[in-house]
Amino acid sequence: MSAYTGPVIDAHHHLWDLSLRGQPWLVDEPMIPFRYGDYSAIRRDYLPADFRSDTATAPGLRVIGSVFVETEWRREDSLGEMAWIHEVAERTGVPSVVTGHAVLDSPGIAEHLAAIAAFPLARGIRHKPGGAAVPERAAAEPTLLSDARWREGFARLAPLGLHLELQVPWWHLHEAADLAGAFEATRIIVNHTGLPADRSPEGLAGWRRALRVVAERPNVHLKVSGIDLPGVPWTADLQREVVLDALDIFGTARCMVASNFPVDSLWATYAGIFAGLREITADLSADEQRAFFFDNARAFYRIDEDRLWDRPPD
């Protein structure tokens, strides 16, 4: 087989204009604890021109669509980010579609979700549900995924055509599996490969077990992204085991690629991530490669052709 050369949809990236002061974690002091360590390098504007410049650095890579994911905009202006990103998309064509934010256990969640769904590019929401800092505390410190009031908000997603973007440590994915089984009509996409930060044999074994549990639910999908290790350059050799295990567990029909830029620019280049992913997946069939890099994201996010930046080949 050979490395993939077809069109790409980047299924998870961010944009921000810091002059709007929309993201407290990017503009306020002190800086917050962050899973990648010092993030001062991304406390700068990152707009469509910057994103397109990054995509252009990868030789032979043809990114023709993208998915914007919420950036922890200030909560007192909960719909401000949706209005801003839609204006940006209308003016620049980037992104193709949008994932917003909602606090699913908050008062007024019905009205908030209806307002999000009314935006034409809205496809889902993200609400980080918390969790234990280490696997050993997972049973004693469940996430909001198991909370009855939070689930009442979650139940409102599918009727509005929305899905959940789930960012949670892998040791809470059993809760996600239970949630997905209780709400089979609601789609969930696990962000950032289930966060396999611990690359010890024991850590990877736990991560694989957790992925297998949640992958049993057919309404759960996976983004292969967000697998930087602080202080370690992103290489195919470093990431090969994680990427191939994720594809094996979920199957190429339920996985999609994403950059998580500019966050992952802390320890990776855009060209490096996609060169590595193309090298790692070179032994997949042509159909499997296209599904992973393009077709799955286009179908999951319902991206119409007029929201792509170029027409994909038939």
Would you give an account of this structure?
This protein is of the alpha/beta class and 314 residues long. It is built from ten helices and eight strands. It has helices spanning 24-27, 48-55, 80-92, 109-117, 148-154, 173-182, 201-215, 236-250, 270-280, 286-300, and strands spanning 7-13, 62-69, 97-101, 122-126, 163-166, 188-190, 220-224, 255-257. It has an eight-stranded parallel sheet. α6 (173-182) packs parallel to α7 (201-215), α7 runs parallel beside α8 and α8 (236-250) packs across α9. The longest helix is centred in the middle third of the chain and has 15 residues, at 201-215.
Break the fold down into its secondary structure elements and pairings.
Blueprint (H helix, E strand, L loop, with lengths): L6 E7 L10 H4 L20 H8 L6 E8 L10 H13 L4 E5 L7 H9 L4 E5 L21 H7 L8 E4 L6 H10 L5 E3 L10 H15 L4 E5 L11 H15 L4 E3 L12 H11 L5 H15 L14
Parallel strand pairs: 1-2, 2-3, 3-4, 4-5, 5-6, 6-7, 7-8
Helix pairs in contact: 6-7, 7-8, 8-9
